[in-house]
Specification:
This protein has two domains: about 100 residues, OB fold (Dihydrolipoamide Acetyltransferase, E2P) (Beta Barrel); about 180 residues, Rossmann fold, CATH 3.40.50. About 25% of the residues lie in helices and about 30% in strands. The protein is built from seven helices and 15 strands. It has a six-stranded mixed β-sheet with strand order 10-9-8-11-13-12, with helices on both faces. Strands 1-2-3-5-4 form a five-stranded mixed barrel. A two-stranded antiparallel ribbon has the order 6-7. Helix 5 links the parallel strand 9 and strand 10. Helix 2 crosses helix 3. The longest helix is centred in the N-terminal third of the chain and has 15 residues. It is elongated. The chain starts with a helix and ends in a 19-residue tail after the last strand. Bound molecules: guanosine-5'-triphosphate and magnesium ion. The site of guanosine-5'-triphosphate has 22 residues, from helix 7.
Length: about 300
């Protein structure tokens, strides 16, 4: 099997196919069959410009041009997890020339007036909607996510309740309520990185060549789960005091990580109610701190 297939490519294997493992402005870190298996490639702007212009003409309201451009741009711009075509240049800059069709896609529509939609995950086999068993717990929020997920393309959804070790008397009622809301719409997993509870169920979903995408509020334990699956320190996590939330390292960019078991995880920055924290060009909340480290 070639490297790009190990990274989840299911189409015909031809030269110049890459998968985005991380994005840095117009530069993308790709895994591929060329160049020893990875490459830094630049997005060829002209190859994407036509589509953005078309989207703008369709909508055509001058006041909304910027929002439409941003929305259109994101729809055609590669993000972590995307498969792309690139032109390999062994002597210089390799160029991404095409975004390949996504086999699954999860987005939120219109989180602010500034952009049409926000792409949260692409090309996943399994979307983990994560929430912790503490003050973060909200059945209503999960319900909103599942409603959004109902018009997603492809991929399965699991609702993952984290930090089960923090369970307190009375939590049964919250968990039963969640169960009722989720029944028939998604799978529910209950896990704890502390005790290992539920990890077998997670591992069963982490089969070779499958991609798991983690989404959920900041601090629910996405990076911790990634580290547990990876069997080491991949993503930075810092111990926080549960009661204050202080001293936490928060993930600031999306990254696709290959696990030793052959599955992949896309760890994402925590989602705020109205935006994603951290990622520079993903900042949606006016005036929100851009600091990577919270003190
Ligand atoms: N008690 C308990 N704490 C956990 C568990 N999993 C993670 N934590 C703690 O929760 C805090 C936040 O974990 P992270 O993994 O950084 O959370 P995250 O979802 O990646 O957060 P962002 O990157 O900000 O989106 C850390 O202090 C972890 O040690 C768990 O199962 N039980
Ligand atoms: Mg994180």
């Amino acid at each position: 099997m070639t490297r790009i297939e190990e990274f989840g490519w299911r189409g015909e294997v031809v030269p110049g196919i890459g998968r985005v493992v991380s994005a840095h402005g117009d530069y993308y870190h790709l895994v591929c069959n060329e160049a020893g298996g990875e490459i830094l490639a630049r997005r060829k702007k002209s190859a994407f410009a036509g589509k953005a212009t078309k989207a703008r003409l369709v909508t055509g309201r001058a006041a909304n041009v910027e929002a439409v451009e941003r929305g259109a741009d994101e729809a055609v711009r590669p993000v972590t997890g995307d498969f792309v075509k690139f032109r390999y240049n062994p002597r210089g800059e390799s160029m991404i020339t095409e975004l390949l069709p996504r086999f699954s896609h999860f987005e939120r529509k219109d989180p602010t007036a500034r952009r049409k939609s926000q792409t949260l995950a692409v090309n996943f086999d399994e979307l983990f909607v994560m929430m912790s068993l503490n003050e973060n717990f909200s059945t209503a929020r999960v319900d909103r996510y599942l409603t959004l997920a109902e018009d997603r393309d492809g991929g399965d959804v699991s609702v993952v309740v984290t930090k089960m070790d923090l369970r307190q008397p009375g939590d049964e009622d919250y968990l039963a309520d969640l169960e009722e809301t989720v029944a028939g719409r998604a799978r529910i997993l209950h896990i704890s990185a502390r005790t290992g509870e539920g990890m077998d169920a997670v591992r069963a979903l982490a089969q070779p060549r499958r991609t798991l995408a983690f989404i959920g509020s900041s601090g629910v334990g996405k990076s911790t789960l990634l580290n547990t699956l990876a069997g080491g320190e991949w993503a930075a996590v810092q111990e926080i005091q549960e009661w204050s939330g202080k001293g936490r390292h928060t993930t600031t960019s999306r990254e696709l990580v290959m696990l030793p078991c052959g599955a992949m995880v896309v760890d994402t920055p925590g989602i705020r109610e109205i935006g994603i924290m951290g990622e520079r060009d993903e900042m949606l909340v006016k005036g929100e701190s851009t600091h990577r480290w919270r003190k």
